[in-house]
Amino acid sequence: MTSPTPACRNSRRASQRSSTLSVPRSTSVASTSRSHVTSISTPRPTLLFAIASDDVSQVRRVLEAGDASPNDQVGPQSALAFTLMNEQLKQKDKIARTLLAYGADPSSLDASEEEGGMGSAIGGLRFAPELDNLFRYCIAMAKAAHTRQAAAYIQGSDFRSLTGLRFDLIGQDRALEQLFRVLGMHAQQSTPNPLVMLYCGPSGSGKSHLARKFGYLLDVPTHTVNMTTMQSTHDLWQSHSMGPYEEPSKRTLAEFLIDNEGKRCVVVLDELEKCENERNLWSLLAPWELGEFDAGSRHIDVRKVVWIGTSNIGTDLISEYDVSRVGADADLPMSRQEYVELMALLRPRISARLGASIMSRVTTVLPFVPFTRAEQFAIASEVLAGLGKGYSTGQGIIASKEAGEKLIEQALAEYVPAEGFRSLQRAVSTHWLDVF
């Protein structure tokens, strides 16, 4: 049998390739067209389902996993507009704030407002009137340039889930901006180093809330130490955790660090300056500088631990600085330059109290400042809405926006800056009971 010539073999291969690759033109175009239409017309359902579940944790989980964008459309509306206009959602306020925290564009509400839809919602007719000031505050914050920029510092890092703090905490936007800056720089280090932060300011300004939410949002273990009970170094390392977002545990702080060696975790030292003797803090020097904890038989690697201390040190300085800055204008937000200046003034004050050896190992000090008038309104609105859980008929616990604002104005007249959130909570509760 005669072998085919090279020319014949090449011809046959070309014919086979042509036969394999050739597809009727009409079939190829139709298939491609259908595929293209499907890819743009079939929405990702995960965010819609999460919102419809009325479960904030589900919404946060979908957004954190990247399964959906906070700006996804839900039918003809944005996810944010859909949430605010959905009268069936009991967790509407928290879901909306979660969407904003993860980057939902509030300008999507502007178009709806022009059409007469969101105008009613923001005006208090589509959701409880007591929430009106809270949503207005959150939307204004979302539109602020420094709010959007702050979140960019931790995007792409292990700390990105902390963006949820931006609307979970009312006020302290400059503290959050500085926090995100520090975390962004820390995440870029090639070798892990201890991260030590002090939150300082008046009572009720959000220090403990922010500290305790840190590990919860990062989804890492947290151990909270009540420093008011510490009478010795032994008490510190043998202390049990007592935080609202932590699983009950019988582990001591020493055991917690051993169990989480080399892992990301959080240790909160609440009311740091109230330990009986500042010398009891000296045992923190090695963990804070070297990233090592002496467990007796061996040294434990604690370089990835985030240490957060809360303190009232410098409250008078912070209050005096704020008064000198705003004068009679209680609604003037603090600028970045003013906040940096306040940080520089506060650090020596803390050093004089805790000692230079401790302060030299602190990565950053975050002053927590008094609330502005707008922030007070938003906080009072949130408190009022919370008081009405279980009493609302779906139209709100207050008959009108005007009635709600009158109650809030009465509460704000009793606001005590030194007590912060707690004074607003007490005043709103008192006046709400009178109305209800």
Concise overview:
This protein is an alpha/beta fold.
Q: How would you describe the shape? A: globular
CATH topology of the largest domain: Rossmann fold
Number of strands: 9
How many distinct helices? 22
Give the CATH superfamily of the largest domain: P-loop containing nucleotide triphosphate hydrolases
Spatial order of the strands forming the largest sheet? 4-5-8-3-9
Rg calc: 28 Å
Structural class: alpha/beta
Query: Can you tell me the CATH class of the largest domain?
Result: Alpha Beta
The helix fraction, in percent, is 40-55%
- Tally of distinct domains: 3
End-to-end gap: 105 Å
Largest sheet: 5 strands, parallel
Round the mean pLDDT to the nearest integer and report it. Answer: 80
Q: Give start-end ranges of low-pLDDT stretches.
A: 6-43, 112-127, 390-396
Taken as a percent bin, the fraction of beta residues is: 5-15%
The assigned CATH architecture of the largest domain is 3-Layer(aba) Sandwich
